[in-house]
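QUALITY CONTROL LOG
STEP: pairwise intake check
CHECKER ROLE: data steward
CRITERIA: each record must contain a sequence immediately followed by its C-alpha cells, with no blank fields

ENTRY 1 OF 2
RESULT FIELD BELOW
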Amino acid sequence: MFFIITARKYDTTQFAHFLIATTIYQLIVAFSSMGLGQWFIREFPNQADQKAFVSKFFKLQMWLGGMFYIVNIVAILLLYANTQIRWLSIILGTNIIFDNLIYAIKNLNVAEGRQRTTFSILVLDGFLKLLIGCFLFIQPISIIVLSLLTLVVRFSTLNIFLRVGSTNTLDFRALWHSRIEWTDIKHHILSNWKFVVIGSISIFYWRFANIIVSKFLTLHDVANYEISFRIFSICLLVPAVASATVFVRFNRLFKEGNFTALTGYYSQLLFAYNAFAFAGFAFIYPYANDILSIAFGEKFVDGTSCLRQMFLTFLIFPTVLLQATLIVAMKNEDIDMWLNVLGLVINIVLCCVGLYFIKSLSVVNYSIFISFLMFHILQNIFLIKKGIVKTLNCVAFYVFLTAFIVGYTMIANTFDHNWVFVLFCITFSIVILFRLTSKLKRVAI
C-alpha cells in the first residue's frame, strides 16, 4: 500500500529516482549479510554454547552492515550522476546496517521456531510505513523527507526486534564482550562463501535487471518494471516464508537418514507449491490491466504486458525456491551455488544481447523466465540423480507447463476474462479434490 501511494502521489521522474535508489540499496543488502542465514539455521542446533555462537553471528552482521553501507555509497557515486538519486541512496542505504541486524534476529527466530514473532513485527513495520504513505494525503512532502521517515520506521522496527523479537539466546552482555577475530571471519565467511552466492543471487537477478532497465530504457520503464516486481513479490511471500520453515524439517529428515520420509514430504510440498504458482498466474494474467488501473492509476496501465510476462516466471519460481531449499538441506550447497551462477550468467547475457537489438521490457522479462527455466531443469536433473524425483514426472511437468501457458493465454486473450478465471477455478477445484481423495484412499489402505 505504501508503494501504491507513492506511485500515485509523485511524478514518474521522482518515483523512478526513488526506485533506483531503493534498487541499489536492496542489491547491496543482498550481499551484506553474506547469505549466512541458512548456514546459521543449520548449525545452530549443533552448538554447545549457543549464546556465544549467536553473539558472534550478530556482531558479524553488524560489522558487515557498516562495511557494505560504504560500498553502497561508492556504487551510487560511480553509477549515477543525478544529485537526487545520490542523496536518496545515501539515506536509504543506511537501512543496510539495520537490515543486517534484523536479518540475524529473523534467522535466530527461525532456528528456534519463533517465526510468528518475526511475522508480527514485520506486519507492524509495514503498518508504520503505510501511515507514512497516508500522511501524503494530508500534506505533500518531498521524496527526500519521505525517505528519511522510512528510515525512522526501519530503526524503530530494529528496536522492537531487539526488545521483543530476540530471546534469551541473544545475550547483549555477551554481544558486547564478543570479539570478531580473523579466525571467525575465516570460519563464518570464507569457509561458507557458497552461502554468500546462494543468499544473494536470487535478489541480484531482479535488482540488477532494474539497473539494466535504468541504463537502457526510460524512467517510465523503470517504474513499470518495479511495479510489476512488487506485485510479483507480494504473491511470492507465501512460498518464501514456507521455504524458511520447511528447511528446518528437510534438514532434520536428512540428518536422520530418513530418505523415504524426505521424498514423501518433498512430493507433498511440490504439489502445493505448483498449485499455488499456477493459481497465481491464472489470476494475474486476465486481471493484470484491472489491477494496475485500480492500484496505480491510468498512467501505469501500459505496464500490463510487463506484469503478465513477469508472471511467467512465477509459474516456476516457487518450486525453484523449494528445490533449492532441499538441495541445501542435503548439504549440496555447492551444487545450488553453481546453478545460481549459471542461471545469472544466462540472464545477464540474454538481457544485454536482447536489449542491444530490441529496446523493450519484454527482453528483460523473457530473459529472466528463460534463465529460471534452465535453473529449474538443472535442479531436476540433480534431484533425479539423487533419486528424489522421477524423470517421467519431470518431463510430464514441462509438457503440462508449456500446454498451460499456450492454452490459458490464448483463451484469456479470446474470451471474457471473468469467465476464463471461473473456468480455471472450477478445474482447479476438481484437481485438488481428486488429489485429496486419492490421498485419503491411500491412507485408508
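ENTRY 2 OF 2
RESULT FIELD BELOW
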Amino acid sequence: MNPSQRLPDPCINICRMDTAGYCQGCRRTPLEIGRWARMTDQERLALMAELSDRRRGATRPVASAAQA
C-alpha cells in the first residue's frame, strides 16, 4: 500500500470509554488509538480484523451508541 491507500482511522467520533476500557465508537483501547499513526499496514489490518470481532461481541451496538 502506498501512503494514499492507507487504511482510514476507524474512529467514528463517539469517543467515550466503556467500563471494559474500549472506546464505545471504534472499540479500540487507548493504547491502540495512540499507536494507530505509528502502526504498519499489517498491524492495522490485524487490528481491524480484531475490531470486527469486538464490535460483534459488544453488548451495545455501535450504531445505537451514536444515539445516546
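INTAKE CHECK: passed for both entries
DESCRIPTIVE NOTE, ENTRY 2: The chain has a mean pLDDT of 82.
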